[in-house]
Structure formats: C-alpha cells, structure tokens
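Readers outside the structure-tokenisation community will struggle with the description of the input data as it stands. What matters is that the chain and its backbone geometry are given together, residue for residue. For illustration, here is how one protein appears when written out as sequence plus structure tokens:

…
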Amino acid sequence: MPTWYHRASWGLLSAFYAPYLLNSRQVAATGAEGLPKAPFLLMSDHSNALDAYVLGALLRTPIRFMANVEGVSGAKAALASLVGAYRRRKGASDIAALRETFALSRSGEAIGLFPEGDRSWDGSSSPIRPGAGKLARRLGVPLVIARQKGNYLARPRWAAAPRRGPWSIDFLSYGADELARMSDALVEAIISSAIEKNEIKDAQREARAFECERSADGVGRLLWRCPVCGKTDSISGSGNVVSCDCCGSKWDLDANCRIRPLNVPRSLHAVDIADLKDWSDWQAMTISSLALRSEGVVLSRREGAAAIRVGRGRLFLRGWGKGAELVFEGQEGRAVFEASAIRGFVDNFNSFSEFDHRGKRWRLEFGGGNSLKWAVALSCRALAGLPGEAA
C-alpha cells in the first residue's frame, strides 16, 4: 500500500488541484467508472508534461507512476516524489526501476507507465518500448489503457505556453485472466494500437479546435531548417509568427499547429508543408544531407549524480554511415565519439541532453539552441550505414 504521505498528498491533490486541472484543460473522460481496483497497470501515450497528473486526477486510486525527474526543478521533483512517483533512467533500460515495478505491484499498488518512453515532439506516436506486452502479462494484474486526444495540442513539448481546447480520455481495461490467454506480441499490439495517434492531423480531420495567444513561442526547439532557403538553426518563433532569421521568410502558426505563409508563396517551399507535422517530417527525411553543427555547447561527463564539465565549444557531425563521428571541440577540451556506438540520446525537459557511449554517460547543454536535430540524427539509419531515412 502507499505510504501514508503518498496517500495524503494524493487525496489533497484530488480534492483541491484536480478540479482546477481538469476544468482549465477542458478534460473529459469516459470509462473511468468501471475500472478495476488496485493493483492494476495503467498505460498511456505521453504527449503532455501533465499527463500523469491529469490521468491521476480522473482515478480514485493513487497511481505510482514510473517517471524521469532529471532536468526538472527541485520543487517539481519533490512533488513527484510526494505523490509516489518512482524514478527511472531515461533513454536506457533500468533494471532497478523494473524490479521496483514488480515489488510495488506485488504490494497492491496501481502502476502507471508510458510505454513510448518519452513525450512526443510532433504529436505522433513513437514505437512502444520492447517488452511492454510481456511486462503487462507477467505482472498478473489487470491492464488499463488510456486513449488520449488533445493532450499534445493542449501544450506541445516545444511550446512556451499552453493552449485551450478539448482533451478527451477513453479508458479501456483488460482482466488479468484475459491477458494470460494472449501472447506477449498480441498484448503489445493491443497497447500500441490503442495509443497510436497523429494528433496534428487527427485534430484537423475531427475538427477539434485549440486557441492560444502566442502559439509560435518556443517553436525553434522543434524546427531547425527553413523550407525556403534550406539553412539550419535559423528558425525562431514569436507571438503567432514563425520566422527564418536567414532569408526573412515568415509564417503564421495557429494553436492547431497549422502554418500559413505570410510573405512567401508555398511554391517556394522545398516540399508541401501545411502544418508542423509536415515540417518536422521533412526535416527528418533530409537530415542525412546536412552538415550538422551547434555552437556554444557545454559537454560534461556524468560521474554518478555529478556532471564533470569538459568545456564549452562547438559540436559537429563528421561524416555519415560507417565511420561517422560526433566531435566536440573547445578551448578546454576535445572529445570524439563513434556515432555507431552512441546509445540512448535523450532530451531532458529542454534543459540538457544525455547519451551513453562505451559505458560512459555524457551530457550536452545547448544553451537554448536546438537539441532535437541531434536526437533525430543519432537515431538515423543512414548514420549507421543502413538503408532508409531518419527514424
């Protein structure tokens, strides 16, 4: 059972914060009334920083969410701990977190997991982590899946401000006996199908409208290449306007992430771009043709919880395919990483990025620059010398 302060904190949040949270985000849910009692496993897509709080606010049972708290403020980390979240290592397998999951479930807790592993950048689904179906069956408890719509557009990962619009959640449940009769692969397929989405396109098709006064603020975290001049690291957003600082092209961006050219015809675009999903996809597909670099990057080496600074300098990618290298050069030091040996490159709340390389953990701080292009590049099949475009 949860410790007394987890239960007390959950009760206070449910009584005082939950009504404000659900009303201010325009959240509506179906299927919450007939859900099983704890222990059970809750799974959902992860497209909003408040997903765990919104889902928890709709359920009477305290949920012990597996969560990454690196990169968040001390206050937010303390709040997550207070309501019973337990830590996992982002971007890599975490045996300790897995053991904690089984221990908590055996003690009667309800567990909350986001099987994609990280929040969506563009509102579309990511492949769920291998073993999600196996875990759901091996726990031997009911499975609850939350199908969410609107959580991404309520505040995209890159955005500086929230939006107003409909956020709906449909709860589905499967009994432990029912899961036991299925294969791991079938359970995994059920989970994947239930949370699959392409929210920007889905909202347009279903005529779900969102509103925001400053819908372009922060968009430079998502966009790194101009579709008119092709330059990288030139995109910024202010108010409702997206701009290329190199060629001066401008676009209007609404709260549904649709774009409208303001001073250039669409015929000048390198590809047909109607919204940020199109723009993001185009960037990813063309990334292997670019010479990637970032200036003013701080590189550190992780030693336990401490980060040992190597220096500040430029980061660039040398080559593609076999033999490609990620290179850091600064006055204080230099480091070279074989790109094929880099694993688990992740962004932590737009604060810093980390990756594993040959048994060591490294941290990159971009100082407000775009880190997403590196995450895309380092997961690109072309970088590993394999056929196909960026992942």
Observations:
- Confidence is low (pLDDT under 50) at residues 386-391.
